[in-house]
Amino acid sequence: MTPRLLRTAVATALALGALGLNQPARATSSDGVHTVRVPDGDPHDRSLAPRTTDPFSLIGVTWDDPDEALDGTVQVRTRFRESGAWSTWRPLEADSRTPESGPDRDRPGVRGSTQPLWTGPSDGVQVRVAGSRLPEGLRVELVDPEAGSDAVHTGVVEPGVVPPAAGPQSAERPAMTSRSAWGADESLVKDPPTYTGDTKAVFVHHTAGTNDYTCSQSASIVRGVFLYHVQSNGWNDIGYHFLVDKCGTVFEGRAGGVDKPVLGAHTYGFNTATSSVSVLGDYSTAATNAAVRASVAKVAAWKLGLYGIDPTGTTVLTSGADNGKYKLGQKVTFHRISGHRDGYPTECPGQHLYDDLPEIRTLAANAGTSAEPAAEPPGVLDEDEDAYEDETDAGEDAGVLGR
Asked: CA 311 to CA 305: how far, in whole Å?
């Protein structure tokens, strides 16, 4: 190549980089997840230059060794498809851990990971990772929940003929959106569910990331989390048993039967004999609302009520791993409805939601002793969403709710 042609090629590459149009050298795509490797280099500081990507709406970062923690910070900046504008830098929570046992740990290809972040429709990304100890094989996971999927269904699935739970703490099963309704691709779930015998406690989580979503997008967010857990983390299924959006809609999570003690992937060290419910949003920055608290309470009351358990009580669980908070084999007393941080060193479920747990326990106890109002028929989500938006607007004006 002549010096003139070489200078032209270099100038062109620099111009494309300035425009954020560099294409990743090693990118792969599978079933709605497009991955981009973060270049190796400095053991304490790695980055991915701004670039155009395939469409995505949810992002995370994973690495090779599922047992290795990322001791540092991960920040991403994404480009909105509609406007072409770049977001501010946003952190990814690096506290997600592979389950301590079961098929989610033993499957080939299981990876360590951050929590995912919902970005909305995007087509560009920039990443920077810094810390005292960075794992090998960092890659960016770009999830498109709409890729290859049918139209999103958001109708609520009624409890139908399912009766209230048996026992002194019986509570009616809440209406929930089934896996088929939110669009789970069951062909990606390779192994049958694992059962643990009973359910002694419910751990409450938040998905973190953002509260800036509409409730009509909730099914897509749940589908995105499912794809991230299965395709990016390498787990067998979505980790949570139930999910709740900010309008109070309940979504069926992990397969195997909502009324059965399915082994989940949600609280490292305490997945056995426990259930989980995760609220879509970041409740470190935003307060919850009555719809969220009521739905979490209804799920917990019904699930624990299957075993006649008082949701305001406590139980003793044995840690299944050295998880940074408890030692393997250590016996720990938990509230029957506990926060993720009670069992693992994390900020999840956010301070606001964590502070709401006493109220949620009281609501759950009342749900077990009084009749619940009839569930709304399918198709009421738009009305619920409008009502929520009105409440949110009023709360933000008063400085109560954050975004």
From this structure: 8
Torsional sign, CA 231, 43, 23, 117: positive
The pair phi, psi for residue 134, each rounded to 5°, is -105, 130
Distance CA 253, CA 241 (A): 4
Q: Are 157 and 224 in contact (CB under 8 A)?
A: no
Please state, in angstroms and as integers, the Cα–Cα distance from residue 47 to each residue in 11, 72, 87, 151, 316, following that order.
22, 13, 17, 36, 44
Pairing of strands 71-80, 117-133: antiparallel
Ranges of H-type helices in 170-230: 179-182, 218-227
Q: How far apart are CA 6 and CA 13, in angstroms?
A: 11
Per-residue model confidence as pLDDT tens digits over 11-54: 444 444 434 444 433 445 567 899 999 998 888 999 999 999 99
Q: Is 324 exposed, middle or buried (0-12, 13-18, 19+ CB in 10 A)?
A: middle
CB 72 within 8 A of CB 130: yes
